[in-house]
Amino acid sequence: MNTATLGPQRIVCLTEETTEWLYLLGQEARIVGISGYTVRPRRAREDKPKVSAFLNAKIDKILALEPDCVFGFSDLQADIASALIRAGVQVTVFNQRSVAQIFDMLYQVAAVVGQAEQGLAWIARTRARLAAMAEAGRALPRRPRVYFEEWDEPCISGIRWVSELVGIAGGDDCFPELALMPLGKDRIIGEPQRIVDRAPDMVVGSWCGKKFRPERVAARPGWQAVPAVRDGELHEIKSADILQPGPAALTDGVERLHRLVMDWSARHG
C-alpha cells in the first residue's frame, strides 16, 4: 500500500511539536503552514509559511492554504480551533501534559499520515532510552532536588511532562504537586521563600522566550544559602528543547537533564 496517499495531504501545524514530528517521519511535504515560534527543525522556518503565534492565528491565511487538517495544542488554542471549524476545516487539538500522553499524541499523528509502523519504531527506541536513563538514576547514591523554573517573574515551576522527565533523568522535582496543574497560572509559586525552603540542589531555568540569567537567580534575596546557588548549580535548557510536548522534550531535553544530573552526582553524590 502506498502510505503517501493515506491521510491528510495539506496540514497546518499551529505548534512546533507536530511539525518536528512530521519532519522526523519524512512527511514534511504534507505541511503547508506552521507556527511562527517553530525552531525545530530549523529548516522548517525556511520551507514553510508562518501562519500562527500561539494564542492567535491568521485565519484568512490558513484558509487560503486550503488545509485538509489542522493540528493544534491545548485549550489555549480553542478559539483558533473554533474559528477554523466554523469555516469547515478539520481540526485536531491535542492536550498532552504527561510523557505518556506525548507518546500517545505522536502515535496518533503517525497513524493519521499512514506512518504508524515508523512511529511505533521511534517510540520504542525512545522509551528504551528513557528506561535506561531511569535505571541509571535509580542507581545514584543520592538524587538531586531539582527546581525547574519555567518563568521568573513570577516564579513558575515546571509542567507535568517536565517534572516526569526530571524524575527519569535521575532528579527529584521540588514542586511535584504543582506539576499536576496544567495551567501556568496554577503553577505560580508565590512567595519565593517556598523555593528556598525546599533547598534545591540544582536550579534548571527555561524561561520561554528569553535567556535564563543565573546571576539574577543567585542575587535573589535570601537565596545565598540555597545549595544550588552556593554550589553554582544554576543551569539553562532552551525552552524549544524541553517546553514543547513532543520529540524534542523526549530526546534533547531529557538528555540534557540527564547529563546535568550525572555531572552533579559526580561532583556531589
From TrEMBL:
Residue stretches making up the Fe/B12 periplasmic-binding domain: 10-265
Domain of life: Bacteria
Xref: SUPFAM superfamilies: Helical backbone' metal receptor
The protein's name in its UniProt record: Cobalamin-binding protein
Matches recorded under InterPro entries: ABC_transptr_periplasmic_BD (IPR002491), Vitamin_B12-ABC_binding (IPR051030)
Pfam family, one: Peripla_BP_2
